[in-house]
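Lab meeting prep.
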Amino acid sequence: MEGCFGRKAREATAADMDADRISSLPDEVKHHILSLIPNIKEVVKISSLSKSWLRTWRSFQITDFDQHLILPDESSDRFIRFVDDYLMRSHEMPRFRLSARATPEMAPHVDRWLGISLDYHVKELSVNIFKVRQIPGKFLYSIPARVLSAGFMKSLTLDGAVKIDGISTVNLPSLLSLHLSHSHIDNQMFRRLLGGCPFIEDLSVFCCSPLSEIKVLNLNHLKRMKMTSMRPDLKVVGIEAPGLERFCMTYYFETVHLTIHVSPSVRCLEFTGLYKTDEWFCQFLSELPLLESLTLNGCRLLERIWISNPLLKKILIMNCDDLLDITIDTPKLSSFSYEAETTLPSIWTKNHGLGCAVGFRFYFWREPTTLWFQELQNFLTEWSTAFRCPELTVHLYQRDEGLKDEVNKNVALSAPGILHLKLLVLGPPQSSYPLILDGLFSTCHPATFIVRARYPLLEFICEALANREENGDGSLGDVECWKHELKDVKIESFEGNQHGLPLDQGTIHGLLPVISTWNTVCFRMQWGD
């Protein structure tokens, strides 16, 4: 018994010594430790551990004040006292990020805090005024005019129930980055705001109203612009910026009457939800001779498109479900990705034998059919010929789990000649397992086969691959059975751990007991001529 208590006493003493070692660290080291804690509320709790940590807390620089995180369930009074207490003992403020409730009672406090941050010549300012469901009304916080005349500010973000109006003078000569999200601003104030930011490099406009014209004129330093609108009010988008390199536009409204013009200097173009015809799109692309990267997502009017840009290196097409034909004249293309439900468009290329990494992703809400796999075989043959892809990697998933962009990442990292095919099959019944496997391998012969699946499907695949020689009589239609052509298969990795083991009964017996609900297995395959 004494030995037990003695051991506990020694352990407690060792823990106290470790705590003392941390407490005795220099303040700059402890400041770094506190900066790694994502929730400021937890940082406040640490200040109560000792007098040393309390002193560290009092000298720790807080830059983010989020009412959601700091005191989410408390009244606004405590949050106000918290911010006031910190700002009274601050000596500098390079960055000030504020997120507070949209209430008339909070407005004068926000005015005061912004004034203090401007007194400190804040370089990065972010204001988010969020609405509370329990509080009725449509209160908008009017941004003070002084904010738009802070000549020292480099970055400004205005988000939520923020009203930008009635300010006659804008003078932001040092501003490099401007982000407006869900803010209230009209056309005249928007033009005045941009006119006061002559050196801006980054601009984003997200769902602002009643803005109906996004016109950017004479911003010679603008390099990147991103805009999103979910309202039919938007009529004109015109970007005259000779240095513009990246333009991203999302527009979720079915109208072909929207006028869009961007500078010919654009190198990276992204369209999401754009409702434009084939003719408009092809004409628009022809006016971008320096284009190097193109992304199309959910452009539902496109059916037959011609992509002819001499410097284009990367193409990503997603969810353009009505697309039937793609003609490509891009001699420098190095990466092509296509994602859709089950649509298999035709490919035509003017550059035979492109050395290009290629990726496809298809997802099934219903079971794939034998006919679809037969169409897929012709589709892959056509693309492999066009892009000179002798090696194929197949990804088979039952659930995305945040892996939606994995094919695109693999394509970006792949060497030319690797074609990535990702099939997302959501919850197929066990009766369809043979169709999926036979359809897939009768269609294509991948060198690498990556499976992310539940236990029953993963077990079926492992046993089917290991026992292929014993059960090699099946076939899919008139296609020769894949089981005779697969000469060797190894488990290259399991859950990211390298193995390189041959797939036989011994490996399966060692593998299946450790398979959990979801696992990732990578197979390396060798096929006969």
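Slide two material, second protein:
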Amino acid sequence: MALTVKEMLKISDFDGLEVLAGKGGLDRIISAVNVIDAPDVYNWIRGGEIFATTGYIVKDEPNMLKDIIIKMDKQGASGLLIKLKRFIDELPIEVIEVADKLNFPIISIPFNYTFAKIISPILLEIVNEQATKLFFSEQIHKSFTKLVINNGDTQQIIDTLSNFINEDIAFYDIYFDEVYFQISSDRFKEKLSSLSLKEVLERYSYYTIEVDEKIYGYLIKADNEVEKKDMEYNEIALEHAMTVLKLDIQKKISSYQIETKYRDQFIQDLLFNSIKSLEEVKKRASLYEWEFNDGLVTMVIDVDDFRNKYLEAEKNLDRKIREVKRTIFLKTKKMIKSSFADVKYATFGDSIVFLIGHSSKEEAMVEINSITDKLRREVKKDIEHTISIGVGSYKSSIMDIHKSYIEAQKAIELGRMIYGDDVTSFYDELGVYGLLKEISQSNSAKEFYNSYLLNLIEYDKENDTELLNTLKSMVRNDWNMREAAKELFIHYNTMKYRFKRISEILDFDLQDPKHKFNVVFSLKLLRLNQ
């Protein structure tokens, strides 16, 4: 334990020491002891020293001691030992008041004490304390070294740390999105579990686990009531733990990247139909302890316009792009894995592909629809990006999963064309849009939609109007002019005028169901071509 002023007063060789002022500072730690032989001693203070004096340097002007104490306190001195009745009979009241205000201990030493009788026992205690501290550090080092040699995991590191400090602790691994708690700290765990990481960092003391200016996690302390003398020992233990955690997370990342490389290659071979036998699938799957007993659905999650968003703002942001993408993928994987018991996944560029196993096609689709809506909302709120999701059809055999993958990709493509970004599109629900995609690029399709929309498109260009967008809003709102007006934030009378003008430009009656159908069909073909 660190030697404090309070502990110093308990040294068995001392008798008759009396605290004259600054009793609130008895927890100050003493790292050295020295003698004052000049009034400007504060210029050489390094912090933690306690000084002894006979008062000779201020015998002619005892009030000088007030300024000396102020400057000693500012430089981090721990206290003052003074022999009264030699050159100073008593401390001036101003000196006592300043020491009490600063919580700077002033202690009288008996008249018959030599400086050697004061200094030697204090130095012995300090040396013993340093030896104890060194032994403590060595014990911690041995414990963590043994843990590393034996391939101890992150939880074991936290458990080992908890053996050396008397504070509740937790480690937030932000790379793998995992939290590790001290085993005996259930109450602390309950508190932290109800808070976001941002709230935790605002409420508790923490240490950053950082390598090459990149943050990988946070070591959180519960800020329990700890005596000042124990804090230094806790800091030693925490510093050792931080070093081991850095090594541990780098080891985990290296292993994860190697495993991911081979796992992604296996899934890629499945999705690209490169494996021709079920036996080979089972053999390679066994390496990851995977089984494909149920039917599967392929789900593709793609970050919308990801790189362009950053390239427009700044250049050379490859590292930031990787980090944001990893954060999105991490959140995505965590939510999907928490919703489905049987999930395999791989990352391809700006996309992540999930193979979701389920015994029921109907239940799988309902559950996917529910979780993907929640996922898109949370990514948009927390990470300020949008994702588009495509879901292929349910396949009863893993050997047909490549077909579901192609369908999921088509679903994303068509979903973006029809609805824009930030949507979930199910291939089985695309219906006529799948057929429209096939014919939308033909000359006859272009001639068809131009025959209905070209006049309006050219009018907008020539007059800088947005009548085509007004028509699209009408269609989206099932030709309800009031609802379309609300969507466009315009007055109902303005909408009525625009509708009349659109009918005049198109030169046909938009009340006619036949023309309505052809307009809707033309708008869909136009969207698929844009």
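Talking points for slide two:
The longest strand covers residues 295-303.
DSSP finds 19 helices and 14 strands in the chain.
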